[in-house]
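Lab meeting notes turned into a lecture example. A postdoc, R.K., suggested we walk through two folding results consecutively so the class can see how the record format repeats. The first protein's sequence and structure tokens come next.
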Amino acid sequence: MPRKPKKMPTGVRFRKGRYRIIYRGPDGSQVEESVGTVLEDAVAARKRRMREVRDGTWQPKGERRALTIRAYAATWLPERCKTIRSRVAEERWLRRYILPELGDVALEDLRPKDVARWVDGLRDRLSARSIRNAHGVLSAMLTMAVFEEHIPGNPAKGLPRGILPRKGRSTRPATTRAQTLTLLTHRSIDPSRRILYALAGLAGLRKGEAAGRRWRDIEERHGLRALRVESQYHDQPLKGAQDEDVAERIVPIHPELDAMLERWRVEWAQAYGRVPRPDDWLAPYSFKRLDEPRTDNAIGKALMRDLRRVGIDLGKGGGMHSLRRFFTTAALDGGADKDTLREITHRPKGDVLEDSYTRRAWDTLSRAVLCLALDRDEGAAVVALERKEG
């Protein structure tokens, strides 16, 4: 049983091991109610009740309905979808794994042990990475609930070590040189998709970053041209972005990619009936949806079809990220500096001095990209097939 504190906050009393809060109701009369055994919860509950009185949403205890996780999620998700990278993914974690187990629990009743039991129940159904993704969605929702003063703290944060499974190292494979060249040149693959694959395989872009590139992102520089990467999908923030200036990347355009882009500029006009404008997407969703970039789901499904079409099996976990892995692997094998290459493929890390004032020289970044060499002999079978089809 908790002991009475030496100093009690205003409007809080301690009786028989429980805290009680006192405030004025809408009619000015004094209201007193029991709120539990944690002082911080009592202080937060009093603030919440006083806010409800001010907002006109207060209800007597007998008529009050507890705000459940399901009810709060219904209001949180639409607002969340305005800022997150993937609306579909967030909704899926909620619908499949969070709400069935925790949806009917009142927000103020959820405790860290409840979250730990929920995590443990997912171990037989999901991988470690997926469990952490689902937990991240739950934690993000509860963080907003804390900000909106529905609960005093986030019970999903600060779980003891060992409750959340370790992600481990990714086992997603990298495409080989021959596989990459096939996806970039095979005539049975639509040119708009070949460009997306080239942005991953020759520039190291993530799926969403490739989908979110516009023609205006291509910039002239001395030596290699540049590709500005400051958003993904439909102008959504980059993965892990906290500050737009820090998150932005400038990627040197590999000569092979540059040649593909110039050919695609002509083919783009032929495919869509006009010359591409600066704000047009490099690879629009379709002829009828020129103002939309391709989605995560559309790219993933198209890649699976293209892989089957050209007879490539990437195995478990293979996808667009396999092309990105090819870029880093091939560049490192060609002698690229690891830290320089990381500045091309990831948002900058480190202190303010490193991020803002010591960005590597353009020539240094360009040399790292040029370490990636494509051996055309490895694609001889592909070239022969193209000649036969032609």
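The second example is placed directly after the first for contrast:
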Amino acid sequence: MDRESIATLYLDLLAKVLTATLYEDEPDRDEGDGASFVTAFTLHYLRGNAVSMQPKVRLENIRDCVRRVLADAVPGDCIETGVWRGGGCIYMRAALNIYGGAERTVWVADSFEGMPKPDSERHPEEAAFFESPMMQQMYRRFEASLEEVKENFAAHGMLSDKVRFLKGWFKDILPSAPIDRLAVLRLDGDYYDSTMDVLTALYDKLSPGGFVIVDDYGEEGWANCRGATDDFRRTKGIASPLQRVDSKCVFWRK
């Protein structure tokens, strides 16, 4: 078996481990009614052992973006903003290691206290859903502690000095974060303000040829990530086309 086949086999296996899909299928966001998906999602991810709630296709997108920036010698580190239990960043670290980017840092940015409360006047739909029993009781505000995330990195053999943790709200930690350049910028903050805070603080640090991945662009009603992304791209005059990963996640190349 050649090196490329071994790398693919390893990363495919890791994706199944992180998403807890070695022995069962992942919940399908685009099949069935909303209530049945919410139940399946909650049981599989939030009450189960998954370290990432990203569908495997989104982890494959991380892999492909990492491979392309390494192949094209695009300078910079990788970051995910909004990490839950850390699975996406663990996968990012593994992809860098196996494809020759071990010297690059993975930045892990999160409050590690769950999602922030949106401004009810500016974003009433987001605020209403934040206060709902679904977010507070079923989803538990997607909270995972810094200690839990570090333990997950260690359990998968990915905790090292090339993994840096940034704890706090994006508006507070990212403008002053000691990041020089980025090659992959992955956003998973859901809300308008969270998305805008990340793009405002970090987009100018993204190298030409680097990738922006927006996890929640296709979500509707409860999160306005799309609005922030579109507003930022319009303000910055970004013409790079949005490419779909799946029905909710998009990316573009700078």
